[in-house]
Amino acid sequence: MYKNLVPRVAAIHDLSGFGRSSLTVIIPVLSTMGIQVCPLPTAVLSTHSAFPDFHFRDLTDDLTPMIDHWKRLSLRFDAIYSGYMGSAKQIDIVRGFIRDFQHSDQLIVVDPVLGDNGKLYLSFSQEMVEKMKELVCDAKVITPNLTEAALLLDEDYTENLTEKELKDWALRLSAFGPQTVIITSAPVADKRGKTSVVAYNSIDNRYWKVVCDYMPANYPGTGDAFASVITGSLIQGDSLPIAIDRAVQFISIAVRATFGYNYQPSEGILLEKVLSSLNAPVQLSSYQLLD
Fold first, then answer.
1. Where are the domains of the chain?
2. Which helix (H) or strand (E) holds 92?
3. Distance between CA 237 and CA 239 in Å, rounded?
4. What angle in degrees, to the nearest 10, is found between the helix axes of 222-235 and 240-259?
């Protein structure tokens, strides 16, 4: 069977010209991890949506011709990794892409980009939420933040979830179809200044948790970087808890490298200063196996 000389990922995300997010984060992160990134852009923006008056070009009509060309080239992808969708119609196209390019040992990661801080993004409607519920069914791994987990489960957003409730949410999300659910921005009860990542793997029925310090700053694109490190780590053969640890450590380093500067948070983390850390040996692991 034909095998790629370098692991190859089809990255189905938007492209923002300014502000470190989406493909401008995903490509350098995965490339640094030794993985070829093949972008399939869902939209082109002058900046990401945190900037006012940005220009937006929906590429829905361009996706199918690009995909058809890849089919004629008989491209084979070790992973398919999707994120921001420019329209609800794109989800049907992406589901078709997964069906057409899927093979048995392939990793399929869906970052169900819908909202943050308890709110649906302004450009989205409930239709997008319902369509995203369909897309996560095709994934092997999903990486929702706490807001997106609530939206997918039709739950009210709250930061006061107990560990038991978080485990229940992860289990219910796994029932959609993905083998692995990774919930980010999860609360840590009775620990001020801390946040966590909680994960569930249905194959071995185990829950994992990594706790990290919370920094009082909001940098767009950190979710893209986190999910990209998860994707790269799993492609490299890391276990789920090690992949989560690597992603949390990388984001923590990036945020700390950025936080000390007099700098506009909307420009994103100073990715260029910390990319080399992705190739450092795995540090002392801080993951916990939950009962």
1. 8-290
2. helix 88-101
3. 7
4. 150
Pairing status of strand 180-187 against strand 107-110:
unpaired
pLDDT of residue 216: 63
The rounded distance, in Å, linking the Cα atoms of 45 and 17 is: 6
- Top-tier CATH class for 8-290: alpha beta
Q: Check residue 266 and report its DSSP letter.
A: G
Answer whether residue 259 shows pLDDT above 90: no
Task: Note the pLDDT of residue 179.
Answer: 97
Angle at 45 between CA 227 and CA 185, to 5 degrees: 30
CA-to-CA separations, 1 to 4, 5, 103, in angstroms, rounded:
10, 12, 12
- Cβ-based neighbours of 130, under 8 Å, separated by 6 or more: none
Mean pLDDT on 148-162: 94
Contact 39/22 with Cβ under 8 angstroms?
no
List residues bridging with 36 in a β-sheet: 8
Per-residue DSSP letter, 42: S
**Which residues touch 117 (CB under 8 Å, ≥6 apart)?**
147
Q: What does the pLDDT read at residue 89?
A: 95
Residue 125 CB neighbours (<10 A) = 11
Express each pLDDT in 9-47 by its tens digit. 999 999 999 999 999 999 999 999 999 999 999 999 999
